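The protein record filed here.
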Amino acid sequence: MTTHGSVWLATARMSRYDVLATDQQADVLVVGGGVIGLTTALQLQLEGADVVLVEAGRIGARTSGNTTGKVTSQHGAIYAGLLDRHGIDTARQYATANQAAVEEVAELVGRFGIDCELVRSPAFVYSTESADLSREAEVAAQLGLPAHNVDPTELGLPLTATEVVRFDNQVQLHPSRYLGGLAAAFSRAGGRIFERTRVTELNTEGDRVEARTEPGSTVRANHAIVATLLPIGLLGGYFARTRPNQSHGIAVRLPVQAPSGMAISVDDPVRSTRPWPGGGPNGLIVVGGDHETGDQDDTDAVYRGLIDWVSSLWNTQAQAEYRWSAQDYSTPDQLPYVGKAPGSSILIATGMHKWGLTNGMVAAGILRDLVLGRENPWSSAYDAGRIGGARAVAELVKDNLKVGKEFAGGHLRRLLDSGLDHVEVGQGGLYDADGHTVGAYRDPDGRLHTVVPVCTHLGCPLRWNQGDATWDCNCHGSRFAPDGSVLDGPAVSPLKTPDH
């Protein structure tokens, strides 16, 4: 039987924290309890700041708890492109920052004794087609990374690779146990964590910031850091400067011992693998099926594609013991945004391109140093206010034209003919109810949930994600549970319910 949910969240014992019930004062408010928020909060608390962290749901329960757990400077075939696009200095900054982040994560694990299955292993990038990875290896090495072209047999996967690049001495870990360890260390240092506390509004008042929360309490602080997946609401306009992307993962047991290294392909579709220690020596994590959030009509088929890939390679009838998805945001110039949001004193971090365990560590250092008034060697490459050049502007225009089309016609081609009486258990979608478009889902207990399928961020039509049982916005990536509650922003308000 397949468990629908992250293997990491299912196998981690996470502490629970109170809802924010009374107003709070702090030096620093951190919004978001994922890897960036927790790391930044911990570092600032250790530096002597008084920090409050608020999380809309549970600590590490969204993207950070759904990663592959790869802590590596090997980010696919990215470095030759960074060099060509940004020049040697910026490319080297990115490379050096992420390689340093690998060691910083390992240092935190050792310093605080976090039991998170940390293992050193190589990370491979490979092609089974005609992609030329020789220059990628050459550029990565030029930038100071431990990268080498190696014989394809080193990959350890039962497929025919044409080229393979190996990054030495990288790290893999159990991300949820790591996040739980960061939260515990932050609390021991005097930090305050509040869960199930959604920030719905941020206002600057002179040199102070006030956050209003869904429970009705407020937090006032000298500094505010928004470390959510995407800055909430309209902050900084990052909803129009990034694109939401979703990946899917499965945990399986092979008929043979799983490869010990981490690997990712440059082919389409991308396949990313790493060992699954909880599955024993034969355990394997496979991630892939990337697509823009809300842009996949049959997400169940994506999971089937991952299972079929495993079955074909290992000549077995694979069964996913866990399946889950994760969302992240990409930027048009391939570099994250970290720093002060334009027109605001609020600090943000977004656009990690699915490499949040290293980019998140880099972001935390930049945010910490901005609060403390210190220089940071990586801040210029991650500048949150940059435009990114003519090519980036062109991509932004293209992306926002697509958003405009989604505004105009998102519902028309997906409306189902049957009425609400025909919604079967486990099924959801758009239905015609007395001439009105209604979003409906019937849960395993037979209860029917209905919503107005319009995103509460900027009014885009929503799409039903059958594989994950969520309402997804293709415009800016907000996601909602079947009952309409917010799972991922930038939306901060739940979906409305139909009047009839």
In short: The two ends are 38 Å apart (CA to CA). The chain has a mean pLDDT of 92. Residues 88-111 form the longest helix (24 residues). The CA atoms of residues 158 and 313 lie 6 Å apart.
